[in-house]
Amino acid sequence: MSxxxxxxxxxxxxVHVIDEQLLVDAIASGERERVQELIAPLHYSDLADVxxxxxxxxxxxxxxxxxxxxxADVLSELDDAVREDxxxxxxxxxxxxxxxxxxxxxxxxxxxxxxxxxQKQVLDAIPVGDRALIEEGLAYPEDSAGRLMQRExxxxxxxxxxxxxxxxxxxxxxxxxxxxxxxxxxxxxxxQFKPLGSIPLSRLLRGKRSDKVxxxxxxxxxxxxxxxxxxxxxxxxxQRDLVSAPVIDDDGRLVGAITVDDVVDVIHEEHExxxxxxxxxxxxxxxxxxxxxxxxxxxxxxxxLGTAILASVIIGFFEGTIDQIVALAVxxxxxxxxxxxxxxxxxxxxxxxxxxxxxxxxxxxRVVGKELIVSGFNGVLFAALTGGVAWFWFDSQAIGVVIxxxxxxxxxxxxxxxxxxxxxxxxxxxxxxxxxxxxxTTVTDVVGFASFLGLAAWFLL
Amino acid sequence: MSxxxxxxxxxxxxVHVIDEQLLVDAIASGERERVQELIAPLHYSDLADVxxxxxxxxxxxxxxxxxxxxxADVLSELDDAVREDxxxxxxxxxxxxxxxxxxxxxxxxxxxxxxxxxQKQVLDAIPVGDRALIEEGLAYPEDSAGRLMQRExxxxxxxxxxxxxxxxxxxxxxxxxxxxxxxxxxxxxxxQFKPLGSIPLSRLLRGKRSDKVxxxxxxxxxxxxxxxxxxxxxxxxxQRDLVSAPVIDDDGRLVGAITVDDVVDVIHEEHExxxxxxxxxxxxxxxxxxxxxxxxxxxxxxxxLGTAILASVIIGFFEGTIDQIVALAVxxxxxxxxxxxxxxxxxxxxxxxxxxxxxxxxxxxRVVGKELIVSGFNGVLFAALTGGVAWFWFDSQAIGVVIxxxxxxxxxxxxxxxxxxxxxxxxxxxxxxxxxxxxxTTVTDVVGFASFLGLAAWFLL
Lengths: 461, 461
Prior knowledge:
homodimer, mainly alpha, 3 domains, 22 helices, globular
């Protein structure tokens, strides 16, 4: 009985059911059988993880041991960069035979990442029926519901009974069948293949054999247009607690279904993207080769160099002032830094609220107003603190007053910029997660240095 | 037939099926019937959204119109701050009757956020049976599998057939029954209530009536210990593409099941938490009152003030140097800023990889090594760029060389700090998402100012 071991693993270390160091050692010493023995009990997701964690050389050695027996599901779980590496290794024939074993959504996911040449070769090597389904999937725009859906769906005509439905499904099994591996709802369709309603299996099971499907089904269901962006799909699933949903084409005909496991992956992917973008990096960064990482991070740092130089230019205007009071050079980063941090807090809340559709025209003005109040309050508090520190440090009440005033100015500006920059970008169709933070820090640096040094030049000289 | 309208809504605006401005206007002019008419067609999730978007006054007015007819499910979808507000309004009796209608996991979620006094009153007003289940749920640690699970599970003894199982479920319906509203797997248990295996409904439906459940079930299932943290639960669901999973107590007995819709909420919640923490704000920030927001952001800004002052102290050591070459004051923020940005890129990748368990002892050293190479390369590139700019700007080759050297030093340190700080924090049980970025910018500011001004003092004076 495998449940007991599963249980123990679950408590101690729910993820890595394998000691990777043992595997690395076995690979290093070339013990093929030991390697096979270690990976044999692994779930395909866990094997995919192991392949991701290994170095390129270790991975190559492991793939050599497994060879074309590599489970097709492992492929679909892999990070793009690692998958490419492995596919290059195992060749087009392996990929073609693996892809056939997958459900259409997973197959499309594997094929879409191949370069054009390989994609053509793989598709040519696939039987016509499967190829057509995959090519149809590829015809939908990237990140659309069409790419995400599986084509295998259980549909029944409106005049059937529950008994007929169950008998139909039992027969399908004997054929090998065209039913999906797992499904949660069946869909009732009209003669034009338009969905009329859905029946969750738990309800189907409890119905009487003589009940009509049309009396059992729920009419209220969320129909997903095939072109809908996957982020919208994920939002709908979360909002409505869906487990599966029918996908329809432009004529309203049922063409597939999306299941929640794929949506969970999308949520996760979008999550990665959000966080990575806010940090100025690309998604695949971890598994990219160093040279690709250098290149992809360079452009972001270049933008930042531009804004840093802009801030320096502002300081440059006040060279004369700093020359007379060096204390200003010592204190000026404090004003800029506090503005940047306060602004980032506001920005984070605003960008998230936009992404979660929690910020609408109804409440936008109220949110901006609240942020102004919050930043004003904190501005006064930190003006008092910083002013006090500066006063005692340089024994000059005037410097204390100047830094306090600059602090209030910069923190209020930070609160305003932290809300209005993302709102402005969103309204102009630019992803606020990417561009907001560099614009914000430019504003808080420029205003921070300019207000502090400007006030100093005015009052202290 | 509602499908057509659903379709149109889905395409045009999948989220807000209501024009909130119309509702706000109707509330403002006190048209009760118009308000009721507008909200009547809303799904409970959408009504929850609307309630969140309204101002406190508008919300109060809307709740007054709806009264105790407010769907219990709306309550469980609301943000904590808004829910508290509404509960305060509708009173303990309403909450008690609403909670009874919810499944145990949702009920526990509503009750756990009440203050102690209200919690006691609500529990006292609930019938004994429901109360016991909720109290048991509350007894599990917060954010544990126990809080997340529903108690309603379909279990069958190992000696049953599929036919008996289906008949059993049909009977339950007639009773009103103790079956969950929706379920996806049934669990086969031994006489001690220990789970032996699970059967997805799609397989149960396709089996023959005479088949034994014990021959149909999958033994390989992930058992979730009742104390497991919800983040671990979410990871498992994603990793294994689960739709539901059995939860067991310390003796290995089945006590409930977790379904994927709750896990999607957890993933979402953890996502919010990650992003908010990295931005230095609390989760509920958007719906908090301004005074709470000021307070919660203050502490984070205070920590940042400390690090900003520390950086100023470093600059203070070089007051004499700056006094002689004012250009240093103009240029010094560039070195610190570039280090901060490069470090943040590295940090983002590392923190995410740790959260996703993609960074293990097997590859930690390799990742640190790669980051050093990347930051070294980019350090050299930006040293050349910045050095050139500084040289031409201040017409001094020496200043160009000094800023170039400082840039290389700071960017390599940033790469090293960006990987080692989160690894160190994680190993010491501190959440890297919270503390990493403030530590990192402290390091890059201090090293940035110290290296630039120090090298300048050494070479230029």
